[in-house]
């Protein structure tokens, strides 16, 4: 796979989509729109930096408990305190750098959402030397300052998001690194006061920065206030009084020092339950909602559209992603048709359904196998080496670039045509890797029967790439050693390849491995090929179609005979 580089190329075509405007002073709410100081509509197209300041277990493929503090404890048990500190220092230094923001800009994004862990900015309540006071830590502020400088250099907005609040804001433990041995945010006034104080401190520091787009004051609260047993995550909560009270207190603290920045609020139940919270209490406020694994139709966003109209307030999709390219394209097309900006999740992790993928090294795999009970305990030196290599591989230059993900997000919502995944020059004998079919939407560059994950609305609809590797379309791809192959190539599915023939002639086309009992047909320029095919110099479109059965496809061999 191609390593990541900062490039523009065809991905800048995404900038041609309607509604984009760039910074002219502070963003502000104007009725149902987010505008700049020229009153121009600003449609935020953003990426969340999940996994940088706050790790979640699934991003590192960690089995079992996935809170960052438990991951850190398990690492320390393997490598000791000093090596653990070295790992986390390297992780923070490498994961997000200027080249990441440069790349986002080149690809067409205009904003970044920073998921902050409070413990990089202030001590936990239980570790304060003087109860009730707040010790400020320079690490988090310095990291934020650097990120802001990179965003400013690229004329991109930075949205601050408190992802892990003191005590943790919900029963979904991983997303806020909640430690259940300590009182949760909703169980402790001291935790709430630290949260309020942190936002006041942030607002003091950044009040004069127009490239700070907004303050997203509390990520995905999910807490059952009135029915903590049967509604642990607050999906059915009718009142939400404690959540509203805290968000109002945070707003008041921010407004003591900062009158300019948009304040973004999120409902209960992972951001979507606004019962009892509205109307907004500030005239420069926006509502966030989060969207995962459901249909991309108007019904799926009706609740937030209705709130926007009723309260005349802007809305923003603060977090979404973790699906296939088909889902990404459809979601962005839906959102932008309603003038709703968005922030995808995440930029990078161990996994292929994001723009950048952190590679998995062999020694870290041994650590994961041990934690999963599938292998012996690795030697301390091996575990340390694997973890430090993992931290080094978070750097952009060591990441695997998924051009198909970027194309699905930035080009395909407005341009559904198929384009070559890579140049396919045919001259004499040529072998094409089957996994390098064209870039484009399902039904345009390929056709797959189960192309996205809709498990929230129907647990049976969990499609997409079953192998979860190489590309993020619906096409199933598996890895075999150092090579990749199409798997589960089922009746009715097809793959398209745009060819550039540089030497005219009669060509024989064969597939490897042979389909076996399955029936697979080959089409060229819309006509079925039954023997050799005459190809003139120039562009041609090859299609491989599964007619019956299921097969595996690794290579397409084209010979001039």
UniProtKB/TrEMBL annotation:
InterPro entries assigned: Galactose-bd-like_sf (IPR008979), GH (IPR017853), Glyco_hydro_5 (IPR001547), Glycosyl_hydrolase_5 (IPR050386)
Keyword line: Glycosidase, Hydrolase, Signal
Any one of the GO CC terms: extracellular region
Signal peptide (UniProt feature, chain positions): 1-23
GO molecular function, one term: beta-glucosidase activity
GO BP term, pick one: glucan catabolic process
Glycoside hydrolase family domain ranges (all copies): 84-348
Family, as annotated: Belongs to the glycosyl hydrolase 5 (cellulase A) family.
Protein name: Cellulase (Glycosyl hydrolase family 5)
Organism: Chitinophaga japonensis
């Amino acid at each position: 796979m191609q390593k990541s580089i900062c490039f523009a190329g065809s991905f800048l075509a995404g900038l041609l989509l309607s509604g984009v405007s760039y910074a002219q002073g502070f963003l502000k709410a104007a009725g149902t729109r987010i505008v700049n100081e020229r009153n121009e509509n600003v449609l935020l197209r953003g990426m969340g930096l999940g996994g940088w300041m706050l790790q979640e277990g699934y991003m590192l493929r960690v089995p079992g408990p996935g809170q960052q503090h438990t991951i850190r404890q398990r690492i320390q048990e393997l490598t000791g305190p000093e090596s653990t500190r070295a790992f986390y220092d390297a992780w923070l230094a490498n994961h997000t750098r200027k080249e990441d923001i440069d790349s986002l800009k080149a690809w067409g994004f205009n904003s970044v959402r920073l998921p902050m862990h409070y413990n990089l900015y202030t001590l936990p309540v239980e570790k304060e030397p003087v109860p009730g006071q707040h010790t400020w830590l320079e690490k988090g502020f310095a990291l934020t300052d650097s990120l802001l400088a990179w965003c400013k250099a690229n004329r991109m907005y930075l949205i601050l998001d408190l992802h892990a609040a003191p005590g943790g804001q919900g029963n979904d433990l991983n997303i806020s690194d909640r430690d259940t041995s300590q009182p949760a945010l909703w169980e402790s006034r001291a935790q709430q006061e630290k949260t309020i104080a942190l936002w006041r401190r942030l607002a003091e520091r950044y009040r004069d920065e127009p490239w700070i787009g907004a303050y997203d004051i509390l990520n995905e609260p999910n807490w059952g206030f009135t029915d903590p047993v049967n509604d642990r995550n607050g999906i059915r909560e009718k009142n939400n009084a404690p959540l509203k009270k805290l968000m109002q207190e945070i707003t008041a603290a921010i407004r003591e020092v900062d009158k300019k920045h948009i304040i973004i609020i999120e409902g209960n139940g992972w951001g979507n339950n606004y019962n009892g919270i509205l109307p907004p209490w500030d005239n420069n406020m926006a509502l966030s909602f989060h969207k995962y694994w459901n249909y991309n139709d108007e019904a799926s966003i009706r609740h937030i559209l209705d709130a926007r109209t009723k309260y005349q307030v802007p809305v923003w999709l603060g977090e979404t992603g973790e699906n296939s390219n088909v889902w990404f394209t459809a979601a962005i097309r839906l959102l932008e048709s309603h003038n709703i900006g968005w922030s995808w999740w995440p930029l990078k992790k161990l996994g292929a359904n994001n723009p950048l993928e952190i590679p998995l090294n062999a020694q870290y795999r041994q650590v994961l196998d041990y934690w999963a009970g599938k292998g012996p305990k690795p030697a301390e030196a091996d575990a340390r080496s694997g973890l430090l290599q993992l931290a080094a591989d978070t750097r952009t230059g060591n990441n695997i670039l998924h051009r198909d993900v970027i194309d699905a997000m930035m080009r395909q919502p407005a341009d559904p045509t198929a384009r070559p995944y890579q140049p396919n020059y045919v001259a004499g004998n040529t072998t094409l890797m089957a996994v390098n079919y064209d870039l484009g939407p399902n039904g345009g560059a390929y056709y797959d029967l189960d192309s996205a994950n809709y498990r929230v609305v129907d647990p049976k609809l969990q499609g997409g790439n079953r192998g979860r590797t190489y590309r993020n379309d619906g096409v199933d791809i598996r890895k075999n050693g150092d090579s990749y192959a199409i798997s589960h190539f089922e009746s009715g599915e097809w793959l398209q390849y745009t060819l550039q023939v540089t030497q005219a002639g009669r060509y024989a086309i064969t597939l490897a491995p042979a389909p076996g009992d399955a029936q697979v047909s080959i089409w060229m320029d819309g006509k079925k090929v039954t023997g050799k095919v005459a190809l003139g110099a120039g562009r041609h479109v090859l299609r491989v179609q599964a007619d019956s059965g299921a097969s595996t496809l690794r290579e397409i061999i084209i010979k001039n005979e």
